Amino acid sequence: MPHSWPRLLSLIGLAALSAGAVQAAPLQSEHLAVELVAERQALVAGAANWVGLRLEHEEHWHTYWQNAGDTGLPTRFEWTLPPGWKAGPIAWPAPERLQIGDLFNFGYSGTALLPVAIEVPAAAAGTEATVRLAANWLVCKEECIPGKAELTLTLPVAAAAAAPADSPAAAAVRAALARRPVAASWKAAVSADGERINIRVQGADLPAADALDVFALQPQVLANAPAQIARDGAALVVNAARSEYFVAAPAALDLVFVERRGEALRAWQVAAPWPAAAAAAGPAAAETAHGAAPGEVGGLGIALLLAFLGGIVLNLMPCVFPVLSLKALGLAESAHAPAAARRDGLAYLAGAVSGFLVLAAVLLALRAAGQSLGWGFQLQSPLLVAALAYLMVAMGLSLSGAFVIGARLMGVGQSLAGGGGARGAFFTGVLACVVASPCTAPFMGPALGFALTQPAAAALAVFAALGAGLALPIVALSFIPLLARWLPRPGAWMETFKQVMAWPLYVTAVWLFWVLMRQVGADAAAVALLGLVALIAALLYHGRSQLQPQAGWGRRLVFAALLLLALAPLSALTTLAVRPGAEAGAGQAWQTWTPQRFEELQHRGEPVFVNMTAAWCITCLANERIALSSEDFAARLRRDGIHYLKGDWTNQDAAITRYLANFQRSGVPLYVVYPRGGGAPEVLPQLLTPGLVDAALARAAASPSPSYSTSGSSP
Amino acid sequence: MKHLSAFLAAALLSTAALPALAKVEVGQPAPAFSLADSNGKTRTLEEFKGKTVVLEWTNAECPFVKKHYGSGNMQAQQKEATAAGVVWLSINSGAPGKQGAVDGAGANAIVKTGNAAPTAYLLDPEGATGKAYGAKTTPHMYVIDGQGVLRYMGGIDSIQSADAADIPKATQYVKQALAELGSGKAVSVPVSQPYGCSVKYGS
């Protein structure tokens, strides 16, 4: 019985494993033993914990990877966790290529482990918790047997991580994690040539081609037979047959390269964007590409005009209006010095334009460096959100009369004739851009996001137009003294006006804090509020000092100390952050968008409604209120079996940014409806009405879209 | 010994890189075949010219086939199709001795006990017809129009699973293709990913 030895050894191994404290005994199913294990003896509260399903395959039997290949099915997990806990997707280790005759599958044999990160909330510390996993798999030799198991794991939850355990379970989890492909910084380019698909990969530290295999995450793109892989100088070149079941090109093909040398394994993952021309070469992709374009609205000229108009509208935003209305009144006061007023108007224009140009340039540079960012990025940083909230409160306090900001900034009642006037006006322009930036994200994110996907020169021109629009009212006032004369005469009423204008700023601060809470959780936001209290103290103290004829060193020191106290909590923001995330409750109509969940549904040809949103996006919230929260909407989803996936872009999320890029977008909201049975997705407008959504969902639920018809197949 | 097996594996791999399974294409003529049915009668694609033909690769012991027969989905589609004048051919390309491989009597027993209603159950023990079509899975479905042109190839439906509970939620691609062909429309989903067990070909 030559087979009994490895069998016996694996049994001994299993027995040794079950002696560890971390896992329940393995469950013996047909041709496969499964066991839920954890990396640590106790889960760590407020952290992601690795657990995994250990798979002990009987000799010659195997289970499948996320893309199973010619036959088979990927293993699937469904978790039941305590409230507030979150399980990530399977972090698939590098697959093996499995061959039966002429058929190729991708999966695992022998001993394998599928790891999953479980996020445990901080509040769970000190309890004992049970995680439940319903696992579904298909185990095959040549014949196949579907299997499933309900597994539980009960572990204590500790407040802090203990020393890493040395158990076999811990080793198995770590070994599986080490076999995951690493995200390579290589650049991959696809060229599709009829039945062949070429992928050219370039970058640092490319492996040799001899021990390399390549797997595609997306099925129905590459044929499953081994591809030819060769080195061409500094590049790695993959040549593969196109899948016979190729229907439409993905936006990007995700490839996993696996190098096996003896026992050593290295794996990398790289995304190969699909070129638009090659996508059109696919039998049905042209329609998809067309549907994805947000409608080229007349090109750059119109974009510039819209940005300019948008800039003018920005003047009315609650974050901008108070500051600029006072600036305008200041100008009115100085209407008697037209030359100086014109110069200041131009300086202000330069300030506003360069402020937006710098912001756009920074973003473009970050994107060029490979960061997945879009417009609204300035609100994806909790630090910046908190800083903007502080700024709003500080300016509000100044208007309320608590202290006087250097007249350079506010320019109220200050003579603009002096030499500092032009510089002051320039920085007022910059300030206008800064205070306007949080308001551009909610209201203009989509338009500016689109601009960012254009060539750099065009993108910068759009942002310059936005700055010019923002500056327009003040520039007009400074150039046309007549206009200034229409403004009310300065007087005692201005004091009242200032007091009133403080309140929109406070409200803006409240909104920013709400965004902050969504980003970092209540704990970190509370710390930032403490900092705000210190800031208010500092500014009030400063205001009192300003009444003194002479500010002594002691007073300045106290002011500086209070300021420091105000700013210190900001540094703790990110470390304290607990991402509350968007959790789908049982009664909710939607599920959280993840690339895995989305692809799974796509793969199954189910109708899907995708909503990309962010807490700071007012348009998104309005749409949700108006069109996506009614009972009619929920009933439509239920009746037609449409899956509603919601992606939250409040924080940076590279996967969502990539998804947006598929639609030439770089901002939210984005609404996409995928019809049943696959087919071209439909992009909905950025302003939704219930009727429009209902009609789109009805179309998606009906028979599959006709866009899949192949050339020549019409009778 | 180890070297020998490595050598054999390498040799296998290099031959497998050649397309041993033929490629058929939607919109192109479907490969001709001539196979004995479960009653010993020779059946060809040619003889059904003028009629729409469904080819269904099958293996009664495969869990995915069981999913669609156990639930009655496959039989219902067979009955609906044949009632509308469509020819439905179940094909077994399992090599003798492999799981699910049957002879004529075995095939007839499966049809009878399963209450199935294909026009005929064809036996392809050599696997030549299966390979000519590139049939990979059971079930694996093909729809050929009256002119002998392939109009659909792929899975039976849109949800890849072995769970019969998924059937009501799935789009039944063959049924849909037949309805569209029947009303003179283009097939809206002409290609889908086949899913199931591997066809148990001989070497």
TrEMBL record, chain A:
InterPro entries: Cyt_c_assmbl_TM_dom, DsbD_gamma, DsbDN, Thioredoxin-like_sf. It is found in: Membrane. SUPFAM superfamilies: Thioredoxin-like. Residues 304-513 form the Cytochrome C biogenesis protein transmembrane domain. Keywords: Cytochrome c-type biogenesis, Membrane, Signal, Transmembrane, Transmembrane helix. It comes from the Bacteria. Residues 1-24 form the signal peptide. It is a multi-pass membrane protein. The lineage of its organism: Bacteria, Pseudomonadati, Pseudomonadota, Gammaproteobacteria, Lysobacterales. Residues 34-155 form the Thiol:disulfide interchange protein DsbD N-terminal domain. Its main location: membrane. Gene3D superfamilies: Glutaredoxin. The chain crosses the membrane at residues 300-324, 345-369, 381-405, 425-444, 456-480, 500-517, 523-541, 553-573. This is Thioredoxin family protein.
From TrEMBL, chain B:
SUPFAM superfamilies: Thioredoxin-like. This is Thioredoxin family protein. Residues 1-22 form the signal peptide. It comes from the Bacteria. Keywords: Signal. CDD domains: PRX_like1. The keyword tRNA-binding does not apply. InterPro entries: AhpC/TSA (IPR000866), PRX-like1 (IPR047262), Thioredoxin-like_sf (IPR036249), Thioredoxin_domain (IPR013766). Residues 24-179 form the Thioredoxin domain.
